[in-house]
Write a structure and sequence with these properties.
The complex is a heterotrimer of chains A (187), B (151) and C (363). Chain A is an alpha/beta fold and 187 residues long. Chain A has helices spanning 3-6, 13-29, 48-57, 73-83, 100-103, 154-160; strands at residues 35-36, 64-66, 95-99, 122-126, 135-138, 146-148, 168-173, 176-180, 185-186. Chain A has a single domain, classed as Bacterial phosphonate metabolism protein PhnH (Rossmann fold). Helices cover 28% and strands 19% of the residues of chain A. In chain A, the strands form 2 sheets. A 6-stranded mixed sheet of chain A has the order 1-8-7-4-3-2. Chain A has a 3-stranded antiparallel sheet with strand order 6-5-9. Chain A starts with a helix and ends with a strand. Chain B has one domain (6-119). Chain B has helices at 10-19, 25-33, 92-104, 110-138, and strands at 39-55, 62-77, 82-88. A 3-stranded antiparallel sheet of chain B has the order 1-2-3. In chain C, 39% of the residues lie in helices and 15% in strands. The relative contact order of chain C is 0.13. Chain C has helices at 9-24, 34-40, 42-52, 57-66, 71-82, 156-162, 190-198, 202-213, 282-295, 312-318, 321-330, 336-362; strands spanning 54-55, 87-90, 100-105, 221-237, 242-258, 271-278. The chains are: A alpha/beta (187), B alpha+beta (151), C alpha+beta (363). Chains B and C meet through α1, β1, β2, β3 and α4 of B and β1, β2, β3, α7 and β4 of C.
Chain lengths: 187, 151, 363
């Protein structure tokens, strides 16, 4: 196995993953806000932001679904080495990574059970652009209104109605990302 | 991906020997054999655990027995070979030495290291096992049947 | 109800300092090293590893030293440490047929391949205090016997299996549930029960096992085989794509052979109970096998006779000594507000009762 595939993880895992975790938590707590996240240089087509999120949240207990072009040897080997996460299909994954089109349909993912709403998938959606404009958001963690450039509206509206069940979303682009948890109302 | 002919996978064999070495022993033998080469960390030594599994009734469905502490690391030599170590216990120095030997076993130093590190370790491990087995053997019961009354 | 109250910091600090001093004891006596505990109190170390669910003799020895020999406190320390470790994966199921046995005995067959190997056992000691140990003394080397080559020792159950007289344990690769990752839920399958039992409190497991022998869900157990020794631990390394041995762990395995009259679904045959525990932990492994067998009543089509050892919910929810001691010992911590309300309630009931009596007397 080539050394290049095994590089690109956090240089200082304890510190960098703690910083990244804090960013993910902030993003989830304040839906629609855009955050920087750094430290990972994953193989293409993963963005640095998606790489950092995966390094931070995934381990041997979190099956990952690689959708579309993300399902390649380079990504598989990189994730296996750095996180040990097993790979699974959409119905069994805890995290899914890919473009919006590649991740569809959302009905394939687990939305949790009423006893354990947390047994649901988190989708990491790779975007070319990400800006705090477009669709209006409201709900917990949002003072008044927020806005985020979402790939569509209807799917997120339907997801919010499932609460307390449902999916959570992270949108990654370059080294920036934002979150849309199931609690957010999409207008 | 999974190697189906483990018996003839020499890397698996030497990594296992390195993992079972007693504390400090790999470093001692390595340093006596050659000067350590330059390397870069792919994964600095870290301590974690592995869940040990077993089978119900020894052969049935698997269950989780409990965890064991593990130290692992990965490094790359300047010449590009990658060395890995996964060893029981919490010893970063031992893990580093094991990963270095693993990487070097893929280079032209393989012969020297086999003779001066792997083979001696293997012999020591076999001797320790035999010594324990000999003590166990001494506690083996030799039954003898008492003569039964028979006219 | 819990109310945060400040105060007592100084008292707590001083209590910790005194605890440290008492732990050390008389400084005229040499201090115990962790290595001494690991080597010379190894059965205590084994129990802490088994019930702490973490195989690491040095850590277990340190925990015993820190806990002043209180093994449940030591297990608590190990459990707490364990939660801080990143988990790299799971091993391939260990093959106890490949065990290098220190001890291997069978109560069911006298002559069996591999023989009866007693190992370092207390069984035939006279249980008389040995005052020689009170004085320092060199221990003579244990005798050895050569000419016997170590080979794989087959399981006793395999012999019975050939005749079809014992239920099989067919190979299966269902990934097991893990109660350290997801909360214990009922009904618990055998894999979950075995995980709970192997880390269960030794005393609790022993008591339950004993109750089955005394008639509470009697299942007529024989120790088909008991073996203690080292087994290799292999794990698949994702970045390599193959499994390597990461070391060896010592385990104790007990397989019981239990009488079984047969049921609507199963023919008369022997059934099996299974115990497997980290370290040399023989009493625990035998207890585990008996309780495992008792808990299998449903899958074997036996009757539930209401015995504690048959009740999975009772057994599994009360077998963990850290859960138990946590809940039990918390009642000694401040409950001032709860108690104040109880006090008020009793006073009120008293007043009502007294005025009631007065009224009754007046009537």
């Amino acid at each position: 196995m080539q050394a290049e595939i095994l590089s690109g993880g956090f240089a200082d895992p304890a510190i960098q993953s703690a910083h990244a975790f804090r960013s993910v938590m902030e993003a989830m707590a304040r839906p629609g806000t855009i955050h920087d996240i750094a430290g990972a240089t994953p193989p293409a087509p993963l963005s640095p932001a998606a790489g950092a999120v995966l390094l931070t949240l995934c381990d041997t207990d979190t099956p990952v679904y690689l959708a579309g072009a993300c399902d390649c040897d380079a990504v598989r080997n990189w994730l296996a080495f750095h996180t040990g996460a097993p790979f699974a299909g959409p119905a069994h994954c805890m995290f899914a990574i890919g473009t919006w089109d590649a991740l569809a349909p959302l009905s394939a993912y687990r939305i949790g059970t009423s006893e354990y709403p947390d047994r649901s998938a988190t989708l990491i959606v790779e975007r070319t652009d990400l800006s705090a404009s477009g669709t209006l958001l409201k709900g917990p963690g949002i003072k008044g209104r927020a806005a985020l450039s979402l790939p569509e509206v209807a799917a997120f509206q339907a997801n919010a109605t499932l609460f307390p069940l449902g999916l959570d979303f992270l949108f990654t682009s370059g080294d920036r990302f934002a979150a849309l948890p199931r609690t957010t109302e999409v207008m | 991906m999974k190697d189906t002919v483990d018996e003839i996978n020499p890397r698996k064999a030497w990594m296992s020997v390195l993992a079972k070495a007693s504390e400090g022993r790999v470093a001692q033998l390595l340093d006596a054999a050659i000067a350590r080469p330059e390397f870069a960390w792919l994964r600095a030594p870290e301590i974690g655990s592995t869940m040990v599994r077993a089978r119900a009734g020894a052969t049935g469905a698997p269950f989780n027995l409990g965890e064991v502490t593990i130290t692992r690391c990965a490094l790359t030599l300047d010449t590009g070979e990658v060395g890995h170590a996964y060893i029981k216990g919490r010893n970063k120095v031992d893990a580093q030495a094991a990963a270095l030997v693993d990487a070097l076993m893929q280079t032209d130093k393989a012969e020297v290291l086999r003779a001066q590190v792997i083979d001696p370790l293997e012999a020591e491990q076999a001797a320790a096992k035999a010594a324990r087995a000999a003590k166990a053997a001494a506690t083996k019961v030799d039954f003898f049947t008492m003569v039964r009354g028979e006219d | 109800m819990y109310v945060a109250v400040k105060g007592g910091e100084r008292a707590i600090e001083n209590a910790h300092a005194w605890l440290a001093e008492e732990r050390r004891g008389d400084t005229d006596i040499a201090e115990l090293s962790v290595a001494q505990i690991r080597e010379q109190l190894s059965l205590a170390v084994n129990r802490v590893m088994a019930e702490g669910s973490l195989y690491d003799p040095d850590l277990a020895a340190l925990a015993i030293k820190q806990a002043r020999g209180d093994l449940i406190e030591a297990i608590f320390l190990i459990r707490a440490y364990r939660t801080t470790l990143p988990r790299f994966g799971a091993s391939e199921p260990v093959d106890t047929g490949k065990m290098t046995c220190d001890r291997r005995i069978s109560a069911t067959f006298k002559d069996l391949p591999g023989g009866q190997v007693l190992g370092p056992t207390f069984d035939y000691t006279h249980r008389l205090l040995d005052f020689k140990l009170a004085a320092d003394g060199e221990v003579p080397q244990a005798p050895t016997r050569s000419g016997i080559t170590a080979e794989d020792v087959p399981h006793v159950s395999e012999f019975l299996n050939r005749e079809g007289l014992i239920e099989g344990a067919p190979h299966d690769d269902t990934p097991p549930p893990d109660l350290t990752r997801e909360p214990l839920e009922m009904p618990a399958d055998r894999a979950l029960r075995l995980q709970a039992l192997t880390r269960a409190d030794e005393g609790f497991t022993l008591g339950l096992a004993y109750s089955t022998q005394r008639g509470y869900a009697r299942n007529h157990a024989f120790v088909g085989e008991l073996r203690i020794g080292a087994v290799p631990v292999e794990m698949e390394i994702p970045e390599l794509g193959f499994a390597i041995e990461v070391g060896e762990v010592t385990v104790t395995e007990c397989e019981t052979v239990n009488q079984f009259k047969g049921s609507k679904t199963e023919p008369p045959q022997f059934t099996r109970g299974y115990g497997l525990v980290f370290g040399q932990t023989e009493r625990k492994a035998i207890s585990m096998a008996l309780v495992d067998r008792a808990l299998r009543w449903e899958e074997l089509g036996e009757d539930f006779v209401g015995a504690p050892a048959q009740d999975a919910e009772f057994v599994l929810y009360h077998a963990d000594n850290i859960q138990a001691t946590g809940f039990l010992e918390h009642i000694k911590l401040p409950h001032y507000v709860d108690f104040q309300s109880e006090l008020e309630l009793v006073r009120k009931l008293r007043r009502e009762a007294e005025t009631g009596h007065v009224q009754e007397a007046a009537e």
